Amino acid sequence: MAQPEIHNGGAEKAEVVVSFTAVKPQLVVEAPKASEAVQFYKEAFGAVETGRTTHPKRKAEQELPQIISAQLQLAGSTILVSDLADDSAPVKGVGSGLSLCLETQDVEAAVAKAVAAGAVAEGEIAESDGACCGGRVGKVKDPYGFVWMICSPSAAAKCGDAGVEA
Amino acid sequence: MAQPEIHNGGAEKAEVVVSFTAVKPQLVVEAPKASEAVQFYKEAFGAVETGRTTHPKRKAEQELPQIISAQLQLAGSTILVSDLADDSAPVKGVGSGLSLCLETQDVEAAVAKAVAAGAVAEGEIAESDGACCGGRVGKVKDPYGFVWMICSPSAAAKCGDAGVEA
């Protein structure tokens, strides 16, 4: 009973078992277009915004607050839209584009397992301020070039609690 | 009662209302690496393959059948993995990379609405042989560079019915 969580016959193989609770495509757009992009996804696809986390310390000259993560509901899935910010990205070097956020309780084990399977960890596992809706985020690139942000779901509520622009 | 389906107060605005039933990230990899990629996602993330559609007419010299679409379940979402094939892509010019499949009953209306909101349609709406698990597929690129494959869900069962490699 003091053993780590084991699923799907993991005991026989003595392998690390990691459970994921959600997959969220994250669309990273050139700042400050995330707000405009959110509006587009509402109009084009009927997405519903359920939360938005913005950067508290933004440059005075910026017209729009930097969107760390806007959370949209679309066809039963969650889509995240973020501004790409070179100086304040929670995990440096995320780059613009489409990545996949994978939520898990055990970020370290999940990253280690992905790396053991052939992915390449990029950067350190770090505290996030919400880009992937997670408390801690690790980034891995898989052998096919796709980027997975492995994050803890603890801060998911933060997205929901943040100012919602309806 | 003979009126078209109306949701969310669409009647007042007389706008086209389109419902989406699923969002599925589609990972398109250089052929013939899709099979290897599926194996990777199983090992790295514990994804479970629930269906695979392969091309019936493949080149004799090819060692592996072209994977039109392998359907994986991961954390309650469906992820599609496909081989990029220049000569047999159901929608030409899909390109490798990560796109988002959006399932709807009304592909034409969904594409038209996305275009009206600012997306650019790429190519014609065409019958698919399963790349996006759809009967018909239209491709649009949104103003932020992301590609959405808008497809009918009618052929979703096809993926499940196809040979499953466990």
Automatic annotation (TrEMBL), chains A, B:
Pfam families: At5g48480-like_C, At5g48480-like_N. InterPro entries: At5g48480-like_C, At5g48480-like_N, Glyas_Bleomycin-R_OHBP_Dase, VOC_core. This is VOC domain-containing protein. The lineage of its organism: Eukaryota, Viridiplantae, Streptophyta, Embryophyta, Tracheophyta. Residues 23-153 form the VOC domain. PANTHER family: BNAUNNG04460D PROTEIN-RELATED, VOC DOMAIN-CONTAINING PROTEIN.
